[in-house]
Amino acid sequence: MTPTWTDYCSNEGFAGPFENQILYAMCRDHPGHDSSYVAAGKVTAIGRIYAASPARGAGKPMTDTPLVRTIGEYLANSKLDEMLASIDFGSRFSPEILESVVSAHGYLVSEIVAATRSWSREAQDGNWRPRNHDSFASKYLHFHRPNAFPIMDKFARAGLKCVGQTGNVSTYAGFCDAFAQYAQTQGDDWTPRSLDTVLVARGRKHEARGEKNCEECKKPKGHRTRAGLAEIYAPAATTTGSDPV
Known about the structure:
mainly alpha
């Protein structure tokens, strides 16, 4: 049986740190995006606590409206709620729902990029490239459907490489493919959150400075994933979740 909202909102074993319980409860009590005010608050809270705010590197505004409020307005007029409704809360991440998970993620990224483009003075330049929001989008959606959406960041990606996954994990689709393969080796008693905890711990060791070889997988650290421009910026012509992160 997959964990319930009560489990995520009150049980440290499922939620992890207390701040996660707060974010889970926020999304449980305010799941929709019909209110731009509420949507902006959720974007702010998750973005700040998880150090992945869409406002980072967005440039200077052309309006007095904060970027998160502009994003909230876009989400209030989007089909994100419809896409989330198609993923049952009790559905645990699996190959069967992978397409819906990746589609919702890509759609959210495109809405954030569109909102930023309308808000940012720098975005009016034809050479503007949006920051990559794959990590933020995965975190935001995870708190709305914690059983379905794995969290993607550089440490989770490094962790997948460290445990032997060889696929391309630089896109959310590729990350989810690798995550699904790893999950198949972990028995039945897991959640995206529990696997993320393991992978992030492995990834942090894998990325740590010091010894030439990773102490976990014993491979040279030269094969690890590295943060760089490709992790910060999405290609200029692309506004989906399939960009490098």
